[in-house]
Amino acid sequence: MSNSTNSTARGGSMPAFARVGFMGVFAVASVLFSSHAGGGFATGNQATQYYARFGWTAPFAAILAMALLSLTIREAILMTSSRGLKNHKELFEALYHPFDKLELLFEVYFNIMVICAVGAVIAGSASLMQKIGGVPYIAAVLMVGVVLMGMTIFGAKLVSSASTIMSVAILICCGIIFTMGIGAKLPEISTIFSNFTSAEGMNPVQPILNAFIYAGFQSVVIPTMIACGRPLQNKKNISRAMTIAFVMNAIALALSCIMLLGWYADFTAAGETTLPSWYICSQLGIPGLYWVYNVTLLLCFISTGVTTVYGFVSRFEGSKIFSRIQKPTLRRAVVSCLSMVMSMGVSMVGLDKIIKYGYGYCGYLGIAIIIVPFLTVGVYKNRKYLKEHPEYVGQSAKEAKQQIAPAPAPTAQPAFAED
Predict the structure, then answer these.
(1) What is the Cα–Cα distance from 301 to 144, expressed in whole angstroms?
(2) What is the pTM of this model?
(3) Looking at beta carbons, which pairs linking 179-188 to residues 24 or more positions away fall under 8 Å?
(4) Which domains occur in the chain, in start order?
(5) What digits encode the pLDDT tens for the residues 327-377?
C-alpha cells in the first residue's frame, strides 16, 4: 500500500481544532485574490485574450472561471488539511492514488508555468518601459532580467515584504480605472449587452472552454494556497474562505471584462492589445492616475518576478546537480541565472504570445491534470474521507464523537409488567 493513501500512513496527525475567526478566513481568501489580481491581471491582456474579444459572454465566462478555480482549490485545501499532508507532492499523490507517479505531471506543469510567468513579467515590464520611456524592447528585456536576477539573489526578502503594499496600490488604481472606464463607455457597453454582440463566426462553446483554460493555468497557485490554508482546519472554514475568494475575484475580473468590452474597438484600432488597461488609463485624461498606475504596475511586475524566481531558486538550489557548488550565494546565483536565461528567452516572443500560447497550453494541461481530477475524483475522495472523519466538517472533535457514538443498549424489560 502506498504511503499517500492517508495521513496515518504518512505519519500525519489530525490537527488540533481552534476557532478561526473571520479575519483568518478572509486572509486566506485574500491570498488567492492577490495571487490572481496581480500585474498580469492589471494589464488587461489576459481578460482581453480569453474573454473580451468574444463579446457579451465575457463577464459570464470570467465568473465561471473563478467558480472553477475556487472549487478546485477548495478541494485541494480540504484534501491537504484533512489528511495532514505536508506539501503539494503528497497532495497530488493522494489525488491520483493508486497511480501516484502521475504527480510528476504537476511538477512539469508547475515548472513550465513558472518560466512562462516570469517571461510574462519581463515581457510586460519591457512593453511598459517601451510605451512610457521609449526604451527598445530588447534593451528593456535585458534591463529587467538583470534587475530581477540581482534582487532575487540579494533583495528577495525586502521585495517580498513590500509586495503586499504594491498589490494593494495596483488594485486601487485598477478599481479607479475600471469605474471610470466603464462610465466613459456606458452607451457602447449597453449596446453590446442589449444586442448580444459577439465575435463574428465565434464558436459558442469557446467562452466556456476559455473559462476552463483560464482556471487551468491559474491553478498554478495551488502549492501556495494549500500552505496558506492550513490554519482553516475544517470544511466549513475552507468553504467560507473560497466563497469569499470567489466573490472578490469574480467581481474584479467581471468588471475588467466589462470595461474592456466597451473600449475593445478603440484599443484594437490603436494597436494596443498588449497593454489595453494602460491605453484606457492614458485616455481618461487624469495625469496623476496615469503615472501612479505606470509606476505601480512596473513595481508590481518586479515584485511578482522576484518572488516567483526566488521560489523557483529555493526549489532547485538543493538539487544534486548543484551540490558541487559549496557557497550558497553562488549556488543561488547560478540557479537564478539559468532560470532568468530561460525566462528572458520566453519573453522575446512578447506578452501576447506568452499569454495566448504559453498560458493557453498550460491551461489545457491544467484542465486534464488539475481541474477535472479535483472536481471529480477529488470530490469523491474528500466526501468519502469526511464520512469517516466527520470532525473535519466544521464540528469540534467532541461534537463529532458524540454524533457518531453508538446509542446505549436498551435496558432489559420484563416480558410481563407486574400488577
Answers:
(1) 10
(2) 0.85
(3) 180/284, 180/286, 181/259, 181/262, 181/263, 181/280, 181/284, 182/255, 182/258, 182/259, 182/262, 184/262, 184/283, 184/284, 185/259, 185/262, 185/263, 186/262, 188/261, 188/262, 188/265
(4) 25-396 (1.20.1740.10)
(5) 877 887 888 888 889 999 999 999 999 999 999 999 999 999 999 999 999
